[in-house]
Design brief:
Rossmann fold; EC 5.6.2.4; ATP-binding; ATP binding; 3'-5' DNA helicase activity; 5 domains; six-stranded parallel sheet; 44% helix; 634 residues; alpha/beta; hydrolase activity; Arc Repressor Mutant, subunit A
């Protein structure tokens, strides 16, 4: 039956490795932990059981944007799904709860802060929950790189739904300590653990050292074909690098959390459709992006942990074909990584000061605020009190971990609209000219408006009506005031949810587990990242796999460290002869297939493949799928 569900709704004829085993374990009622690498198909492991189980499947995920994308995708497959997060209006929340109560939803996605809402949990208690899913499960572990205190409330779901309801925890990257902590925190009973190796045989991990990174980036992108991602750490650098690539004739766009939702969708679709080759992005880009043919992922700036790096680099080569994960680094990056530790853990006095100022900024009196949700304009907050952004954001995160409030730092919602007036009443409406034109445009271009909230774009409506975006916005507000529609404008403001009443600053205490021990763990993660990037004596993959608990890993033979060893072992004559043979064959019209080159050369297969990669790195040849083509030396 799982296979028939997969075929019916997704059109696939077979499961990926470990998907079926995880699904069977869940259907048997077992608590299950799935460790599947990025692109391993984690969502299928709970979406298929959700269609087979009688009640509701509840999915906890911290990524609101990914949550909305998954719900939209499921609805397109005729699978009934809803979501609950702080960006919804009361009306939307009630509508989704009604669907769950009436059995008109098979999956309900929750953001973790909803678990702290007693009235919401009381509503869940009236429903039949058949499966609890914890996505990005490393967030529940205080050993994890992305620990979120609200995730500790997930265990309330088990108490609410019943101890017999199984839990499925999923993550793409976790050390052995994190894995054990996940199962302990979720109170697993006789757990089943399914883990795929972190090895990606088709990925070559390469580190390039450069004082001038721009030139190295251009060489890497010119030596490879196909689409790619370049990861940076700041929004400003996103734009700068994208501009550089375009000036050099490389098709590129940039993507970060500060873009309007419509602009994000446009750029993401251009990249997915191969109209743009390279996406320059912060870590806001990539989660849930299912593009299998990414050939190159470049890290222009180093992430703060191997977990983050592995997930981002793993977006290359999901189709199993040869791909590259390249780090471009310089000696200055060591100091940059060290500085992140102090930025992530500012002085405790500064943290207390930020807590006090946040309460003042929001107008929350001491002893008040419990259970209240407030919009929080972070940029305005920093400008108002002349606060440095990086340590201030870290202070808010630490206050969240300590349980003083929940800081939700994410662009949360696109504009949406539902018609609330009966159809027969619409004929008697007397509207202003702008409202009439906008309303007619909405009714023509969007379906399902009378039954549910539908995402709309003021920009698209403005272009269709030849009105300015401001006039469209005012017309929609007018339609809302006369109760023809319920209009929820786009919001890009973070939130603060007070999980306790506001305290005096002197009572704000950072627990040992939240501050000192987390600081120590981050220091270890930073050291592991430094070792990966700057240690030239050990295979890159072997060191990374050991970090993830695979102590018996062998040298990959493909990373830059392994390649340099092999080069030193080869005689100059044999190396030169092999290189010349490859270049000669690749110079034919249309190039030459990799398999043909291997069969024509007298060298071992692996050595020939590595030499082809070396030549591609230097821009002497290009690898286009399974074909090697001679190129000019850049």
């Amino acid at each position: 039956m799982p296979l028939s569900v997969l075929k019916k709704y997704w059109g696939y004829d077979a499961f990926r490795p470990l998907q079926r085993e995880i699904i069977d374990s869940v259907l048997e009622g077992r608590d299950t932990l799935g460790l599947l690498p990025t692109g391993g198909g984690k969502s299928i492991t709970f979406q298929v059981p959700a269609m087979l189980l009688p009640g509701l499947t509840v999915v906890v995920t911290p990524l609101i944007s990914l949550m909305k994308d998954q719900v939209d995708n499921l609805r397109q497959r005729d699978i009934r799904a809803v979501h609950f997060h702080s960006g919804l209006t009361r009306r939307e929340t009630e509508l989704n709860l009604t669907r769950c109560r009436l059995g008109k939803a098979k999956l309900a996605y929750l953001s973790p802060e909803r678990l702290q809402n007693d009235s919401f949990m009381a509503e869940l208690r009236t429903m039949t929950v058949s499966l609890i899913v914890v996505d990005e499960a490393h967030c529940i572990s205080q050993w994890g790189y992305d620990f979120r205190p609200s995730y500790l409330k997930v265990v309330r779901l088990r108490e609410t739904a019943g101890e017999e309801v199984p839990i499925l925890a999923l993550t793409a990257s976790a050390t052995p300590e994190v894995t054990a902590d996940i199962m302990r925190s979720l109170r697993f009973r006789e757990p089943k653990v399914y883990a795929r190796s972190f090895t990606r045989d088709n990925l070559s991990y390469i580190v390039r050292y450069a004082d001038f990174k721009e030139n190295t980036l251009l060489r890497v992108l010119r030596a490879t074909t196909g689409c790619g991602i370049v990861y940076v750490r700041s929004r400003r650098r996103c734009r700068e690098i994208a501009d550089l690539l375009r000036r050099e004739g490389i098709s590129a766009e940039f993507y970060h959390a500060g873009l309007d939702p419509e602009e994000k969708d446009l750029r993401q679709n251009l990249w997915k459709e191969d109209s743009v080759r390279i996406m320059v992005a912060t870590n806001a880009f990539g989660m849930g992006i299912d593009k299998p043919d990414v050939r190159t992922v470049v890290h222009y700036d180093l992430p703060s942990s191997l977990e983050e790096y592995y997930q981002e680099a793993g977006r290359a080569g999901r189709d199993g074909r040869e791909s590259f994960a390249v780090v471009i680094t310089s000696p200055r990056d060591k100091a940059t990584l060290s500085r992140r530790l102090s930025e992530s853990f500012p002085d405790k006095e500064f943290i207390s000061h930020v807590y006090e100022l946040a309460g003042n900024f929001l107008g929350v009196a001491v002893g008040e605020g419990y259970g209240m949700l407030y919009e929080f304009n972070f940029d305005l907050f920093c400008r108002t009190y002349s606060l440095p952004p990086a340590p201030t954001r870290s202070a808010l995160t630490l206050l969240s971990r300590a349980g003083y409030f929940e800081y939700i730092d994410e662009t949360t919602s696109r504009s949406r609209l539902m018609v609330i007036m009966r159809k027969d009443q619409l004929y008697d409406l007397e509207l202003t000219p702008d409202a009439e034109e906008v309303f007619q445009c909405v009714l023509r271009n969007y379906t399902g408006l009378f039954a549910d909230y539908v995402y709309i774009s003021e920009l698209v409506i403005a272009r269709s009506t030849c009105l300015s975006s401001e006039r469209v916005y005012q017309a929609l507000l007018y339609l809302g005031r006369i109760h023809a529609v319920h209009y929820v404008p786009r919001r890009t403001t973070p939130y603060i949810y007070y999980s306790t009443s506001r305290e005096l600053p002197k009572h704000v205490i950072m627990p040992l587990e939240v501050y000192e021990r987390q600081r120590e763990r981050m220091a270890l993660r930073l050291e592991a990242m430094k070792s990966f990037a700057f240690n030239t004596s050990e295979c890159r993959v072997r060191g990374m796999l050991r970090y993830f608990g695979e102590s018996d890993a062998q040298d990959c033979g493909k990373c830059d460290v392994c390649r340099s060893r092999r080069k030193s072992a080869d005689t100059p004559e044999t190396t030169r002869s092999l290189r010349e043979s490859i270049v000669y064959q690749a110079s034919r019209e249309g190039g030459c297939s990799v398999e043909t080159i291997i069969s024509n050369c007298q060298s071992p297969r692996e050595q020939t493949i590595q030499t082809i990669r070396d030549l591609a790195d230097k821009g002497i040849v290009r690898i286009d799928g399974h074909t090697v083509i001679a190129a000019k030396i850049q």
